[in-house]
Amino acid sequence: MIRIVVLGSTKGTDLQCVIDAIEAKKLNAEIVLVLSNKKDAFILERAKKHKLKAIFVDPAQIKPREFYDSKLIQLIEKEKPDLILLIGWMRILSEKFCNQFKNKIMNIHPSLLPEFAGGRDSNVHEEVIKAGKKETGCTLHFVTAKVDEGPIIMQKKVSVEENETPDSLKEKVQKAEQEVILNAVDLFEKGKIKVTEGKVIIEE
Fold it and tell me: Which residues contact 71 (CB under 8 A, 6 or more apart)?
């Protein structure tokens, strides 16, 4: 069984699918800690509803970023996680943090990277529609100090319809995100995801 720490700043919708899969015994994993940099982020409520350990770490109290990340490292290390999932985490992680948990931090991004890298949530969906794209999707990647440039684990495409809105597109992409996260966590737990020379190899 793998131990998972989750970092999130928003509602944590994608976290719910992980919780549900664990509770349904579809994932051999345990969420040992949920951390947020936003006091009122619903991800904390969501975690508490399922009796998960949830902590708000106030960035206003711990500056600069390196000190803040050191505090996160301290809290995370205590839990001895095998995997860290970023679900709507709205802070850039320092190089120290990325190196500390190299090839153990997965981030879900709401576009087909490298397209629309650096964007966030609904902004990305707006940009996709403005650009007249016929398809978009999501990318799960390992996190490195270079934003949205870590080794890609997997992507899933969704089509963009003519009357698409950012909200309707977000819903479609989020469904794809959840499928990708569950698939990748399962493969990671089975030891089938390897990183070789900066590229992800998924073993059969």
Answer: 57, 62
Whether residue 119 is predicted with pLDDT greater than 90 in this model: the reply is no
Nearest Cα residue to 188 out of 80, 50, 75, 84: 84
Give 48-84 pLDDT, tens digit per residue.
999 999 999 999 999 999 999 999 999 999 999 999 9
Sole residue written with tokens 């966030």: 120
- Which residues belong to the active site? 109
Contacts of 204 by beta carbon, 8 Å cutoff, 6+ apart: 192
Distance, CA of 54 to CA of 163 (rounded, Å): 39
Pairing of strands 199-202, 193-196: antiparallel
Cβ count within 10 A of residue 160: 20
User: Rounded CA gap, 149 and 166, in Å?
Assistant: 24
pTM beyond cutoff 0.90: yes
Alpha carbon distance 122, 97 (integer Å): 27
2-108+139-154+177-202, which class in CATH?
alpha beta
The two tokens of residue 107 are 């981030």
